[in-house]
Amino acid sequence: MSAKIISGTETAKAIKEELKKEVAALADKVVPGLVTILVGEDPASQSYVAAKNKTAHALGIHSEQKTLDAETSEEDLLALVEKYNNDEKIHGILVQLPLPKHIDEAKVLNAINPDKDVDGFHPVNVGRMVLGEQCFLPCTPHGVLELLARSGVETSGAEVVVVGRSNIVGKPVANLMLQKREAGNATVTLCHTRTKDMDFHTKRADILIVAAGVANMIKADQVKEGVVVIDVGVNRIGVTESGKAKLAGDVEFESVKEKAAAITPVPGGVGPMTITMLMKNTVQSAKQFAGLA
Ligand code: L34
Fold first, then answer.
1. Is 194 helix (H, G, I), strand (E, B) or coil?
2. Are 87 and 168 contained in the same domain?
3. How far apart are the C-alpha atoms of 216 and 250, rounded to whole Å?
4. Same domain, yes or no, for 116 and 158?
């Protein structure tokens, strides 16, 4: 058996078509506005931020890209965030992570107006998410849920195993999937670096979500026949002949796809969904500011 490939690129395309229509229909009332702030020159971050701005532009969303050098002080970054908190054209503020070591990440995320926090990283939005209240959902977990829902994967009652406990992916995706919601109602196990017997857990997963940041960490002998695999990892493992980054997921795709019922590829899996959910949140924010939601 070879797995069905769950294409994030295709699913994202469908959602972007919907958003494009929505943005066009809003045009005489509000133009959604996004600002991305990148500190430093990390090549992966540069590529993600560029993709976010390009996608925004394609959907008719106003987008501004702010790039600050790696030595920028925390104070200057906070001042910039404050400027955009007060900018009426901007409905979404994204500070790309990770930030340089000398900047306190939590302090910066706290400074973003929760109503413009389209990443869903502000403690107010995290709290609302955990309580199941209306909020901006974090983009990667939201993308994973949309991918499952739109691929017709039944999550209710499923054994979901998440590998990785980051604030950006592991913790929120585990939390969302246990909630009474679409793509939720699962029985969730969250594994991490101190998990005693990782294989015991991964082998009983109906749905395995891997966000560990370790290239090709999950092999075929660690999953059961018929599992649905969502690979969140985007690891740069070299350079292709054309000079582009060579990417690998956290799952050994070639072997695991022979056992799985369905699997997401890297690239073209969760990554494009992350970007698309950011657009969805930005449109949502604009509607809220315009009193239309
Ligand atoms: N503030 N920081 C903030 N918000 C985020 O939501 C992110 N993240 C993560 C890193 N830091 C962040 C992203 O945007 C990871 N991430 C992200 C976004 C997009 C892609 C990967 C990670 C993506 O589009 N990946 C492509 C490959 C792109 C490439 O060539 O590098 C894919 O098909 O997987």
1. coil
2. no
3. 5
4. no
Q: 287 in a domain, yes or no?
A: no
Task: Examine residue 292 and state whether it is found in any structural domain, yes or no.
Answer: no
Residue 60's pLDDT is what? Answer: 98
The CB of 96 under 6 Å from ligand 1? The reply is: yes
Q: What does the alpha-carbon distance between residue 281 and residue 214 come to, in Å, rounded to a whole number?
A: 29
Residue 290 within any structural domain of the chain: no
Question: Under DSSP, is residue 127 helix (H, G, I), strand (E, B) or coil?
Answer: helix
Establish whether residue 51 lines the binding site of ligand 1, counting it when its CB lies within 6 angstroms of any ligand atom: yes
Residue 279 lies in a domain: no
By residue range, what is the domain housing residue 219? 138-271
Is cis: bond before 272, omega within 30 of 0?
A: no
Q: How far, in Å, from the CA of 113 to the mean position of ligand 1?
A: 22
**Tokens, residue 286:** 């604009």
Low-confidence ranges of the chain (pLDDT < 50): none
pLDDT for 113: 98
pTM of the model: 0.97
Count up the domains in the chain and report the number.
2
What is the reported pLDDT for 289?
98
Q: How many CB atoms lie within 10 A of CB 162?
A: 31
Residues 170 and 256 placed together within one structural domain of the fold: yes
243: DSSP letter? S
CATH number reported for the structural domain that contains residue 165 in this entry:
3.40.50.720
Residue 96 is among the residues annotated as catalytic for this protein: yes
Please give the C-alpha separations between residue 188 and each of 36, 174, 175, in angstroms, as whole numbers. Answer: 33, 6, 8
Give the span between the Cα atoms of 132 and 121, in whole angstroms.
15
